[in-house]
Write a structure and sequence with these properties.
Layout: H1 14-25, H2 27-36, E1 41-42, H3 43-50, H4 54-66, E2 70-75, E3 78-83, H5 85-101
Antiparallel strand pairs: 1-3, 2-3
Length: about 110
């Protein structure tokens, strides 16, 4: 159920959707997204949980952040990452619209 006080995110264009899907297409980045599905996480925790070197994880976090899927904040020497729910919702809406349109019959050929 949607939050009645929430402001709807503006719809995304196909180009933005492609960028989000491209970022999610890498299996390791999808694992990062899934790890953040439970809430904000510190890089140190993600490194340990995913069994990755910090340099490799940092690269993938950068790609996801540049795509608009992640937010970050620094506290002391640690950086904490979280999903941007509005980006997930925009992609979900784009996919739902695509799904709703895909069952339209073709126009008759002339």
């Amino acid at each position: 159920m949607a939050d009645p006080g929430a402001v709807a995110s503006p719809p995304i264009q196909s180009e933005q959707a492609r960028a989000l899907l491209k970022a999610l297409a890498e299996p390791l980045r999808l694992r990062v997204i899934e790890a953040l599905g439970g809430g904000e996480r510190c890089v140190c925790d993600l490194t340990a949980d995913l069994g990755l070197a910090q340099s490799k994880l940092s690269f993938h976090l950068k790609v996801l952040k540049e795509a608009g899927l992640l937010a970050d904040r620094q506290e002391g020497r640690w950086i904490y990452y979280s999903l941007r729910p509005e980006a997930i919702e925009q992609l979900r809406s784009w996919l739902a619209e695509l799904g709703a349109q895909c069952s339209k019959p073709a126009a008759p050929c002339t």
